[in-house]
Specification:
8 helices; single chain; about 230 residues; Glutathione S-transferase Yfyf (Class Pi), Chain A, domain 2; about 50% helix; glutathione transferase activity; four-stranded mixed β-sheet; Glutaredoxin; Glutathione_S-Trfase_N; alpha+beta
């Protein structure tokens, strides 16, 4: 059995959990709080970031994008028509482009701010960066999420799924990030019906069930968070 070191509200960790669930792989989930910088975890991943996949063989695969590529290379062919990274070069480029958009750009402009300020800081000691949320960072993230949501709506108006005709890593990455900020009630779904309907399709998949069950101690999710019909 593979082990997955993750933080439940690390969106990139959620992305990997969704991939594994879509592939029918049930890893042992090990919660890791990256800000604690445990020596044991740093020995596995010196960067100290989540997610990290530890294979039964002892092989360590860090970083969501690298894990996604690794899983496609080692398990993708067995999925036949359900492969999450297309076989054609143009399709693979588009999925990878959107992966960078959500795992890096969206995280840096939206998810990273909101999760850190509203969730992570609640559990951090002062010397780890804990304390009251920075409202300027929260306001910036709330502004930024609007154009990302419009971009998702733009893509879905022209395609069945974000990167083309089939569900791909792009959909799982985008949905993973949106799920974190949706928990906090910070997604303005009323501003783009196309994006909302696409997200409802993704979060209705069986692979999403475990993620929708995640909770932050002392912080209830938005009322619609686990409602498959919004």
């Amino acid at each position: 059995m593979a082990n997955l070191y993750h933080f439940p509200f690390c969106a990139n960790s959620r992305f990997v959990r969704l991939i594994l669930a879509e592939m029918g792989i049930e890893p042992l989930l090990i919660e890791e709080r990256p800000w604690e910088r445990r020596d044991e975890f740093l020995l596995i991943n010196p960067a100290g970031t989540t997610p990290v996949l530890l294979e039964q063989s002892g092989m360590v695969v860090p970083n969501a994008g690298i894990i996604a590529e690794y899983l496609d290379e080692t398990r993708g062919l067995a999925l036949t028509g359900r492969r999450l990274l297309p076989e054609d070069p143009m399709g693979r480029v588009e999925v990878r482009r959107l992966l960078d958009w959500f795992l890096v750009k969206f995280d840096g402009e939206v998810t990273g701010y909101l999760v850190n300020e509203k969730i992570s800081k609640r559990f951090m000691a002062a010397h780890e960066g804990g304390g009251p949320p920075d409202m300027n960072a929260i306001r910036a993230a709330r502004t930024n999420v609007r154009y990302h949501l419009k971009y998702i709506g733009y893509l879905i108006a022209r395609r069945r799924w974000l990167a083309g005709d089939a569900l791909s890593y792009a959909d799982l990455a985008a949905a993973a990030h949106l799920s974190c900020i949706d928990y906090l009630g910070d997604v303005p779904w009323e501003e783009d019906e196309m994006a909302r309907n696409w997200y409802a399709r993704v979060k209705s998949r069986p692979s999403f069930r475990a993620i929708l069950a995640d909770r932050v101690a002392g912080m209830a999710p938005a009322a619609h968070y686990a409602d498959l019909d919004f």
